[in-house]
Specification:
heterodimer, A: 495 residues, alpha+beta, D-Amino Acid Oxidase, Chain A, domain 2, Arc Repressor Mutant, subunit A, 8-stranded mixed sheet, 11 helices, 23% strand, B: alpha/beta, FAD/NAD(P)-binding domain, 4 domains, 27% strand, globular
Chain lengths: 495, 480
């Protein structure tokens, strides 16, 4: 496996932001590693969101959120092309359902203009119907810069681009301790990063300890970013987990929604309100709810919220019925504002004053994924203030186009709902290994969409297991479903 | 645009399961020759190869066959009749095309299919959708909780166990009492798993009465009626489900919530016609149940597109699917020849049984009389009263069945045996007739210890005079 343990930079967290930083830094003459506690990339916040590229009008003028989100939105088309991922600049509607919502809508417009968001304008009831006939509202704010993308494809592609230009990934490496040595002397500064890895699979509790060292540590630990700060001796931050639940609807409803539709946000809710998103796959996504929870990684769905989401979704789009739901899921926002405070704090992106060389990224909630590449550039800027970063002579951050599912060529179909071929599944498996991640059914699903359709893997799970056994020699008994600690099967029927 | 040479057919049959095969044979018998079956799996037979249990063919062949044996009969007929088929070939699109000519047909359908050979377009007079059905997944049920490993639909679990030699889990709760769920309760129990409960939200089980009896009651597996799973627990692999009783209106009775520890949840909560291929051509469906609207000939709302089998509505018995497909084949042949049809506008299928259908409900309901035995000889599942005298059998065999059931109940055992040197790890087997019910566990021990060498052909004797019960253990499928 990875034998190098000494790096110029160690990034903690292989989410979209960590991967984007890795990709940006990989264009310089630096040795870069990413450590991630999960088996694969996009298993946390980056894989559990609406998949919307925000235009930056929801954030306070002058905030990092506003500045980086607007920059991210402006760049996204180009980034999506470089990475070869699905992105559609659909535009978005924020709807005032009643006259009472109008002042808030006007405030959003003013805020957007102050932030430099382009293509914002108010639309009347008639134009709302013209944009999307099934949506009703007395007035709307139309944002032409908003778009939808595939967050799994995006996060994976960032990691692949980084790995391809020399970044080393350490998956299944949970950071357990950080010790700074000689932090005052910039030349001799050294961080020791202790890690723990699960030994084997199933519910095995044994863990293997490891250690990496680096001159720079970049804490992009998302929900755990506060704990990672504390390991380094920085006690300034507390992450308040705030869960958002979603429903995914059958692609049959795709014709009824052409762009994301949001209600006017409630200042105190800590989210942008339950909205409808027209994902590039054709699925409509309803959500997210907003609920402060105690456990950071409690991704459970709850009956109350599931029912509420459904009725709120129907309010925006009446043709949604219970049979349209094909899956429910949840994500958790890493908020710096508590339940009592509500609302949004700004992103924290800075080098620690206390521990030089330790870069803190915390509170990277929405619009974090839109802002990932500008955040990465900002982090590179922080490094370059301390040392000269030399660009590599040749560095290709542009990913080759991935195998598309159905391109008119010869294919044996594995996933009938999404039209995914055997070649697509094998390609996904190989790409998981190429970034040093550990294959799981979830990792294959995230990369191919096999299993995301209306049958939810009822047909393709069997085929994927058999295909990987036949073509890649994967023993089904050591296959994982979602995590390193689960196993897909209990054994063989006949030895 | 450059004109494309399209292969032109009389009928393209989408799906090579029982419905598709029976329709193809029927068309051939009607003198329609340019028939092609497009099957997306690597093999013909649809879902039958994984249904290694018995109960097939009782109506059509007056024999108690397993799924793979039933499929084999039709596969052989297909080959004998030289009917063309292609496997590993998925239809992605159907669209109507109008052709200018002086022939009687101007309306054709273009069928686009993808396979390892490439993308092919076919022109055809008729399309038969024989695409079967799919299982309702967890996501469609709205069960709160986590999303761990260990949740399988019954059919997926059945495929893993019966074709892939893989055990989904050891401690199992089954939600829903559809036939596949009941069959899997027995199958997993015989394989050594503990099925702690079958949970059904309705007052009556969803599957046939015969399956409740021979799959649950034979093995003392608790059937919890008027209850449902209200939460899934477990961070990695599923660790428990919460079960809650429902009142007569179907509302949860909160104080009845209790947890069932498990490592596996099997879902048998309904089947939905898999009609998406037809939707690409714009056929109309009933929004209430997803079933396609058809006229008296089985024709959908789009000219030339017909539908049969579970893609039309979900049937209890494969025998009924075969019969329906054969009858529809006659109408399709008339359509192809331009002859008069029964016609009518496309509407919900009038032949599909509904919940008030007496035949369908007698197949499901349990008799209130304690001196009753459900006859397992055929799907009618006659409730036969044996005290003070034997009454209630719809045929003469029922009386003999009850007499034997009272003295020494016998059951056909279906299972699988390890194969070495073949394309698969296991071959499905059955006893040629019943063995004593009490001996099933001993018989399973024996079956688990057997190893056979490929190739194995269907019907081949695996063990003669199996455990001296006077019956043979035979292979019910082939392994090359």
């Amino acid at each position: 496996m990875q034998s190098q343990t000494r790096f110029d930079v160690v990034i903690i967290g292989a989410g979209a932001v960590g991967n984007a930083i890795a990709r940006t830094l990989s264009s310089y003459c630096l040795s870069v590693a990413v450590v991630e506690k999960e088996a694969d990339t996009a298993f946390g916040i980056s894989g559990r969101n609406s998949g919307v590229v925000h235009a930056g009008f929801n954030n306070k003028p002058g905030s990092l959120m506003a500045q980086l989100c607007v920059a991210g939105s402006e760049q996204f088309q180009q980034i999506a092309e470089e990475l070869g991922i699905p992105f559609k600049r659909t535009g978005k509607l924020v709807i005032a359902l009643t006259e009472e919502d109008i002042p808030a809508l006007l405030a959003l417009l003013a805020q957007g203009e102050a932030n430099g968001t382009r293509l914002l304008r108010l639309v009347g009831a008639e134009e709302i119907r013209a944009i999307n006939p099934n949506i009703k509202g007395v007035m709307g704010l139309w944002s032409g810069m908003t778009g939808v993308f595939d967050p799994f494809a995006y996060t994976c592609a960032l990691a692949e681009a980084a790995a391809a230009s020399g970044v080393t990934y350490f998956f299944n490496h949970r950071v357990a301790g950080i010790a700074a040595e000689n932090e005052a002397e910039e030349k001799n500064r050294n961080f020791k990063i202790q890690t723990l890895s699960h030994n084997g699979f199933s519910e095995d509790k044994d863990e293997i300890a490891g250690e990496l060292s680096a001159r720079w540590v970049i804490n992009s630990g998302g929900l755990q970013s506060d704990e990672i700060c504390r390991m380094a001796g920085i006690d300034d931050y507390t992450i308040y987990p705030c869960r958002g639940e979603y429903h995914i609807l059958d692609q049959k409803l795709a014709p009824y929604l052409s762009l994301p539709v949001y209600p006017v946000p409630n200042e105190n809710s800590g989210g942008l309100g339950v909205h409808l998103t027209s994902a590039p796959s054709g699925n409509i996504i309803i959500g997210p709810s907003s609920e402060y929870i105690d456990e950071k990684e409690d991704y459970a769905d709850t009956r109350q919220v599931m029912e509420a989401l459904f009725s709120e979704g129907r309010q925006l789009l009446p043709m949604i019925d219970a049979k349209s739901i094909i899956k429910s899921f949840a994500g958790v926002r890493p908020k710096l504002t508590s339940r009592d405070q509500g609302g949004f704090a700004d992103f924290v992106i800075k080098e620690s004053e206390k521990i030089p060389g330790f870069i803190i990224l915390t509170g990277i909630e929405s619009p974090g994924i839109t802002s990932a590449v500008p955040i990465a550039e900002m982090v590179a800027g922080i490094l370059s203030q301390k040392e000269t970063l030399i660009k590599k002579e040749s560095c290709d951050l542009i990913k080759e186009t991935r195998l598309s599912s159905l391109d008119g060529k010869a294919h044996t179909i594995v996933c009938r709902c999404e039209g995914i071929s055997e070649a697509g599944v094998l390609d996904a498996y190989d790409r998981i290994l190429a970034i040093g991640a550990i294959p799981t059914m979830k990792g294959i699903k995230n990369r191919t969409r096999a299993g995301m359709g209306r049958c939810q893997g009822g047909f393709c799970l069997v085929k994927i297991v058999s295909l990987l056994q036949k073509k890649r020699g994967v023993d089904p008994l050591s296959s994982h479903f979602n995590t390193l600690q689960d196993s897909l099967f209990a054994g063989r029927c006949r030895e | 645009m450059k004109p494309i040479d399209l292969m032109e057919m009389d009928a393209i049959i989408i799906g090579g399961g029982p419905a598709g095969m029976a329709a193809a044979i029927s068309l051939k018998n009607q003198g329609v020759f340019r028939v092609l079956i497009l099957e997306r799996e690597a093999f013909l037979g649809g879902i039958l190869p994984q249904c290694i249990h018995d109960g097939f063919g009782l109506i059509r062949f007056d024999q108690n066959l397993t799924g793979p044996e039933y499929a084999e009969i039709y596969k052989k007929r297909l080959l004998d009749q030289d009917i063309a088929y292609e496997t590993g070939c998925a239809v992605t699109r159907i669209e109507g095309v109008e052709r200018e000519s002086d022939q009687s047909y101007t309306h054709l359908n273009k069928v686009t299919a993808v396979s390892a050979k490439g993308t092919t377009d076919y022109l055809t007079k008729a399309v038969i959708l024989a695409t079967g059905c799919r299982e309702r997944p967890r996501g469609a049920l709205g069960i709160p909780g986590t999303r761990p490993a260990g949740i399988f639909t019954a059919g997926t679990a059945q495929n893993f166990v019966n074709l892939k030699n893989l055990m989904p889990g050891k401690r199992v709760v089954i939600l829903g009492s559809g036939d596949i769920g009941l069959i899997m309760a027995r199958r997993l129990t015989l394989e050594g798993a503990e099925v702690t409960a079958v949970v059904e939200r309705e007052k009556n089980p969803g599957g046939l009465r015969r399956n409740v009896l021979q799959c649950l009651e034979d093995f003392d597996i608790p059937l919890i009626l008027s209850a449902t799973v209200t939460e899934i627990k477990g961070a990695h692999r599923i660790s428990a489900v919460s079960v809650c009783d429902l009142d007569s209106k179907g509302h949860l009775i909160a104080e009845t919530v209790r947890d069932y520890p498990c490592d596996t949840l099997i879902l048998s909560v309904g089947l939905i016609p898999e009609i998406e291929t037809g939707l690409t051509a714009g056929i109309h469906i009933d929004p209430n149940n997803g079933e396609p609207l058809i006229n008296q000939d089985g024709q959908t709302s789009v000219a030339g597109i017909f539908v049969c089998g579970n893609a039309r509505y979900v049937h209890d018995l494969v025998d009924d699917v075969s019969t329906e497909a054969e009858e529809m084949g006659i109408a399709v042949a008339r359509y192809i020849r331009g002859e008069e049809l029964k016609g009518g506008t496309a509407q919900p299928d009038q032949t599909a049984p509904n919940s008030t259908d007496t035949q369908a409900s007698t197949r499901r309901e349990k008799s209130q009389n304690p001196y009753t035995i459900t006859c397992l000889l055929c799907p009618n599942s006659c409730s036969i009263v044996y005290k003070p005298e034997i009454t209630g059998a719809m045929c003469g065999r029922g009386e003999d069945y009850v007499k034997r059931e009272l003295i020494s109940p016998m059951r056909m055992l279906t299972s699988s045996v390890r194969v070495v040197g073949g394309e698969r790890e296991i071959v499905s087997v059955r006893t040629t007739s019943g063995i004593p019910k009490q001996a099933l566990n001993e018989a399973m021990k024996r079956i688990k210890s057997l190893i056979v060498v490929a190739p194995i052909s269907t019907g081949e004797i695996i063990e003669k005079d199996f455990m001296t019960f006077g019956v043979d253990l035979i292979a019910t499928s082939k392994v090359l």
